Amino acid sequence: MTSVVNSPVASFLESGSKQLWIDGAWRPAADGAVIESINPSTGEVLCSFAAGGAADVDAAVAAARRAFEGPWSRFTPVQRQNVLLAFADLVDEHADELTHLDVLDMGAPIGRPVSSFTPAEVLRYYAGWATKIHGETISNSVSPDIFTYTRREPVGVVGSIIPWNGPLGSAIFKIAPVLATGCTMVLKPAEDASLSSVRLMELFAELNVPAGVVNLVTGVGSAAGAALVEHPGVDKVAFTGSTAVGQQIVRAAAGNLKRLSLELGGKSPDIVFADADLERAVPGAGMGVFANTGQVCCAGTRIFVERPIYEEFVEGLAHFADSLKVGNSLDAQTQIGPIVSQRQLNRVSGYVTSGLEEGARAVTGGRRIETDGLASGYFLRPAVFADVKDEMRIAREEIFGPVASVMPFDTVEEALARSNATTYGLGGGVWTNDLGRAHRVAHGLRTGVVWVNGYGYFDPAVPFGGHKQSGWGSELSVHSLEEYLNTKAVWVTT
Length: 494
Ligand code: ADP
Prior knowledge:
The chain has 494 residues and is α/β, with parallel strands linked by helices.
């Protein structure tokens, strides 16, 4: 079944224009501009949505400020917890629709959930934290008559900018800590995948929450995104996206010294030792690169394999890549969906060409699929390159597509040194049955997360974030909460 007509979101797609949600009301962009949403499985237009600009961002930030200083500031922790729990129930009730929107909008395969937990579980996890944010009393040495304590206060108005590769999850990861801490926000989803955010706001609108607590401004990054980042009324920007845009955001945020949390790109290593269980390591490392069509910031794209098993691994990985069913994201059998857009397909294909030109061994894949009714979509066969050299572009730059680079190594020291020889530091993997070596590699990798004998697990309670140029701060867990809180010290002379 690959038709949009009978899908649970058909009525949403057919309903009127998808507008901006500002100050508790829907409105078109100030200049009336819209963007078309394209289904990457077919190249067809799904619908259009508002392309907000600087004037809309102004209105949204003003609404968020009024809510922050007004009614929302009087919500107790239990009330905020209850908002999160009620939102979680709504998101659960409409999970099918929300999932379908991402399936159609950015091509996530319907039969393969992006993560092992549901968006509602993230909301419930943060609902629990709303009542557990507290300061401390501190014994000072100034005077026994002075009492000192700290308060954890919400940072204020947050501008949250998210990418297209996991739109629903990214929106939830940003909304949940905002509501738990008592901040307010303006959400700016990616122009390539905004529909699930619009539907989320329709659900949020059903809750009894003051106008302006959460606002949605869809639009292009260089207009709506840039306006939000530069806005003097925004106290913090929470950004997930490319390192290049992250750098622009750091510069643009300097005006009023915004707090920043950045979840950026990666070129993550995955190290396979000769003693690893190859039956697990081959598909594990394979999906570490190819899951979500390689459009994952922590994809383990540089696979270092210990020399004695190198050829066997390359052959196994190629066989695994060839076995993957690439297809329409609405097909329940599909394991690998399309690339999100023609622009990204061109970009990824350019990297395949550069791998060939720089002399890597093309073992399999890398070609656009133009058969089986897939010609009008943006489909690429998962690619495996072997004998890749560290200095080649495919080994250095983030591709954000289904392209694996496999390289042999001889010693643990060499594997670690080459793994760390990158400006990025997001994910890392190691496959071995030697416990001591697993720990040594886990400690030696300069990355924000390491997976041992498995790749790509996430949990709401476990922090996720990058070191080096992969970002600042963490997503998920109590550590993400910290990003939305300021600490204030209070001295009381009695
Ligand atoms: P991706 O590689 O996922 O497309 P981008 O970094 O290009 O990553 O985009 C991530 C998000 O950042 C999107 O919502 C996009 O609209 C937004 N964005 C792009 N450019 C800017 C900018 N100059 N300022 C603020 N946001 C931007």
